[in-house]
Request: fold
Amino acid sequence: MEKSNRLFVFIGALVLIGLIFITRLFFLQIIDTSNYYKAQAYGSNEITIYPARGTIVDRNGQLMVYNDASYDLMVVPQKAKDFDKVALCKELIIDTTEFNKRLKKAARYNPREASVIYKNLPFYLYTRLQEVLYQYPAFYIETKIDRRYNINGAAHLLGYMGEVSERELEKDKYYKPGDVKGITGLEKSYEKYLRGIKGKKVVLVDKFSKQQGSFAGGKFDSLPTAGENIISSIDLNLQIYAEMLLANKIGSIVAIEPATGEVLCIVNNPNYDPNLLVGQQRNRNFSALLLDPSKPLFNRALKAPYPPGSTFKTVQALIGLQEGVLTPGTRYPCHGGYRMGSITVGCHSHASPLDLENSITKSCNAYYCHVYRSILDNPKYSSVQAAYLQWTKYLNSFGIGTKTGIDLPEESSGIVKKSAYFERVFGKNWRSSNVVSISIGQGEIGLTPLQMANVAAIIANRGYYYTPHVVRSIGDAQYVREEFLKRHYTLIEERHFDSVIAGMAKVCKPGGTAGRTGIEGIDICGKTGTAQNPHGKDHSIFIAFAPRVNPKIAICVIVENGGFGADYAAPIANLLIERYMATDKTAPSSKPEMQKRMLTANLTGKKLSASDSLKALVTKTIK
Reply:
């Protein structure tokens, strides 16, 4: 009986093994012929399906950045054997040495994974390769997305795309060799929102490298997810008009909506057309821009720490009021400037003495030398150094000497020196007289145009600001970043802003330092600045906001070598305020002669920006 049981078990095991083999053979030969054997007979390629990158529009829905197709020739290095290399190089119009270099680079990265060997194929090469590529089984064409910019300015704002580096490939597995990503501007800051999610398609290819349908019925395929569209805070019409006004000048313009912190325009000049850094000519054009002595790639608005000149008097006045060393009725004499021993700070001719309000309107240098020294020599502090430390805390609360946190890369903190710096220069017990030039925004102080525009927004809001930002919302859900909804308060009480604003309200009226630049019907509160420049003519600076009640726009304009603040910066700023606040954006300016002078002025001796196509784009809005 025992032997009979063992025999039964043995026979049962044989039958089971037989059934397993028969089932497996049936599956391989009948059911899976469309997958396994086709893959063996034909081969397969995994093709990345690139998602549509998110578009960027302005605050009014005008398209600023959109997509265009580009074509890359891909290679799987492990399969690149026994093909006519000379013939392929002839088709690609490339020498074999360069081709071998690219092929070796692809093999080093991953011999079994596809890599780009020829990026951004010109369309004529793309169509030619479609006819002959069957001869080269290791190669195929992959369609990608490239960018196009609907304005040939605003380059520092929008940014540009560039190929990912080897370091970035290691850091973020989303990318593979030949992929592009945002390098600067909005393209960089919002890369993870804009780029979307890649899809893939596994296809069967025959021995002629022709696609023969999906592998496994598309079982391993995935659809791409488009990137999020972005609504920017930029007013495109204002941006274009600002670029026109700054054409053939060197400088920057930043405008902010005080009530939200939304940036209305950011302009730099020299500028460049962002479409130069798209497609086949990207690398060549970038090299040319990098070597251009006018530095068109330099983002002045966020990185250049200019001496703020007399615009800084607004901040000094507010700190003096808060510290209790200044009142609205405080008067100081001025007889052509401030003098103390060997120290002389000159000033222009005006009535004397002046109170606080008129010191802003007339921009008295002597007044603010007295104010600054009274801040640093305040007896409530144990030393000038202790008072200076508190003074820097006030500046930091204005976003000066620290980054504002704008949603663009490369922002500078500006220049606010620590006390230790003056100790090295003047000795441990340095005095207020050693730094008196800072009183009028000269010497060891530097603000970016963004920081100056933010100061104007703070004064407009009477003591607080929102983090400046260039994106209103992201995606269909119109997601708004939480940090942009938070108010940042300065260390100045609201009540102290009235006297400063009253003085600013008269600057663009008869008798003010920019009296000829005012716009009828708009209550503009401004402050002129003339920043000394050791390398040439002074810089023209102006900050302003309007209207005085319920402000809609705050602005900073800097024109290098433009002279007095009222010469170029104030006219440009006020023309932009007029345009932004106009109900009819196509209505002619109320100051046609001032507009004409700003549009035609050339302070460089050569043209730096505002190409013919840009001019054509704005002709319809400028009358």
